[in-house]
Predict the 3D structure of the following.
Amino acid sequence: MKIEMVDLKNQYLPMKSEIDNAIQRVIDSTNFINGEEVKLFQEELADYLGVKHVIPCANGTDALQIALMALGLKPGDEVITSDFTFAATVEVVGLLQLKVVLVDVNPNTFCIDTEKLKKAITPKTKVIIPVHLFGQCANMEEIMIIAQENNIFVIEDTAQAIGATYTFNNGKTKKAGTIGNIGTTSFFPSKNLGCYGDGGALFTNDNDLAAICRSIVNHGMKVRYYYDRIGVNSRLDSIQAAILRVKLPLLDTYAAARNKAASYYDIAFANHPKLKTPFRDKKSSHVFHQYTLVGCGINNFEIQQKLQEKGVPCMIYYPVPLHTQEAYRTIEMKEEDFETTNALCKSVFSLPMHTELTEEQLKYIAEAVLKIIN
Ligand SMILES: *Cc1c(COP(=O)(O)O)cnc(C)c1O
């Protein structure tokens, strides 16, 4: 049986003619840059998210960088984010000469620990970047209170959680990425809403920030050939936008398919003494960008290797905490402050998760896992 970590081919086949037509439409128009498709996609995504502005850009890393550039920060200003995330989140902070402050995560949600976050705040803290890891929102209720009390901006890294819904204590709901000052996402092919190349976007309800982001993505230009600020060149291609327009209406169906696979795994591994299934936060829906188990008393690399021998792909997100990486470690970072990330990097493993998993494949994967750990 052929099992993929992410099965983009089988996701494409049922919509082949729609996708192919969308691509052909752009080629026929020769409007490859900032064409009609990009305008329509940004409107359709804004509608879906219930947010005022969507600013498309070239990838999720650029989206984070542009968000930080828009906030008018000074070198040395502090940006707090999670120790347990993809390197892109911290890379852009360093590139902009801002100071990365890493905080440990909650052992259940894998998202930033809000108690430890409070302790990390200093007068220089200007931004918090919560990462909605693996498809579930960070504790946004707490984070927004902490941010407001301390006059700090919030940029939500929504690369893994587009489409997730967060419910506040008062019953109000918002889509992931539309709660903080700016949200960012990625349309990398393997993300929940993936294009066929690179792509990304920023979301905001703030008209001023939206205008600034729109100018930054286009060389800092306001009126043609008049530059107000230093910007970058970061665009979503029209072809990618056309593909995303075919896939956006399917996003909720995709999330449902991912949840169905997750439920299968949950049941297969329920109450197993050596496995902890993903925590379901009452306040956030889960869109299962990854299905990540925590193994108790078993090394995750060993599990990964044994699964691969049985033809089951398995990935370790993430094997090394950011605070120990050559590029990011500083003398201020102390091992004892990162107890949870340190433990997770040795024990988490992610199983195949995509929209096309069959019951037969799920059964094979679950049995392989159980055979290996029992
Ligand atoms: C994928 C990802 C990014 C970066 O997105 P790219 O489009 O690959 O640049 C940033 N943050 C997180 C959490 C991601 O998973």
User: Anything to note?
Assistant: The radius of gyration is 21 Å. The pocket of pyridoxal-5'-phosphate is lined by residues 59-61, 85-86, 88-89, 131, 157, 159-160, 186, 188, 198, 200 (CB under 6 Å). The chain has two domains: 8-249, 250-373. Residues 251-269 form the longest helix (19 residues).
